[in-house]
Amino acid sequence: KTARKAAVTTASTRGTGTRLTSADRVVYPDSGITKGEIAAYYEGVASWLLPELVKRPLSLLRCPEGTDGTCFFQKHHAQSLGKGVHAIELREVEGSDQYLYVRDIRGVLDLVQMNTIEFHPWGVRIDDTEHPDRIVFDLDPGDDVAWSEVKAAAKDVRDRLASIGLGSWVRLSGGKGVHVVVPIRRGPGWDEVKDFCGAFADVMAEHAPHRYIAKANKQARTGRIFIDWLRNARGATSVTNWSLRARVGAPVVMPLSWAELGRTRGAADYDLRKALRRARTLASDPWEGFHKAGQRLPRT
Ligand code: ATP
Ligand code: MN
Ligand code: MN
User: Which of 128, 229, 260, 283 sees the fewest Cβ atoms within 10 Å?
Assistant: First the structure.
């Protein structure tokens, strides 16, 4: 048994202390990407990935059988996740439970070792989990919506936010849509934040009902874009910048400047290799100013 285990075990990832087993196992059967390559990817993009990810409660998408097998979301801590993965006790509807977070690349690699592909943080930091520091408008195009329409919608959301004094930043989801992200100064609680987001989405839909919908009704979505504001409820998450997606082609969640968004051709424009190249060559932060924005959420 020991011999067999040794045969599928490769060296630990450089200097982080995580022991990566089965590094040669193919995780993305469509593109032949291995677990070792996934670990190398997350190490390679760490300086871009970590600022948005660390010290926040985290949901994971784990795919122990590969991206074409059964994947599952996990939000609760377990000792088996590794020493770099930490617990935080959070209130639930009834009682409380241990949630999980990481502080550094060691934690990320521990989670990769446990077959995590996607990282989905909350919009709060662990030192105050009742007061969000960012909101996310998740734009979900229905069937028959052209990419140019999705881009126009993102700019529409940006412009309406700007008109009430809020700067916003955009990312490709790696799936079908985009997220428009708004950093806010901590203060308002979850209910106030959620109410603001719902009211904002309603206004978008009222002004252009043929283009937008603010209700999570799949049928009514055909030909329109759902402004999904429900990501901003307590316990909800959105996938983080530079996270891989467990989808065909190994697409990546990519933060872009607004100018770059205009040149994209789809939400899955960046795959693992292209993202890694971008991480190495990026001259400036596409989300310049995001962390310093310090903007106050207007009252609804
Ligand atoms: P797409 O562009 O394809 O919509 P997405 O990541 O925005 O990609 P959504 O289905 O719109 O996917 O979901 C938005 C966010 O909600 C996700 O990024 C994820 O964090 C969270 N989410 C969605 N479904 C689940 C789920 N079943 N369990 C936990 N979190 C989920
Ligand atoms: Mn979405
Ligand atoms: Mn959604």
Answer: 283
10-residue stretch averages of pLDDT, the chain, 300 residues long? 39 72 97 98 98 98 98 98 98 96 98 98 98 98 96 98 98 98 98 98 97 90 95 97 98 98 98 98 96 90
What are the residue boundaries of the structural domains of the chain, listed by start? Answer: 2-129, 130-300
What CATH number has the domain spanning 2-129?
3.90.920.10
Query: Does domain 130-300 bear CATH number 3.90.920.10?
Result: yes
CA distances from 177 to 171, 222, 293 (A): 9, 14, 24
Ligand 1 lining (C-beta closer than 6 Å): 59, 73, 120, 138, 140, 173, 175-177, 228, 231, 237-239, 267
Q: Is the pTM of this model over 0.90?
A: yes
Rounded to whole angstroms, the maximal C-alpha distance in the chain is 66
What is the rounded CA–CA span in Å between residue 254 and residue 268? 9
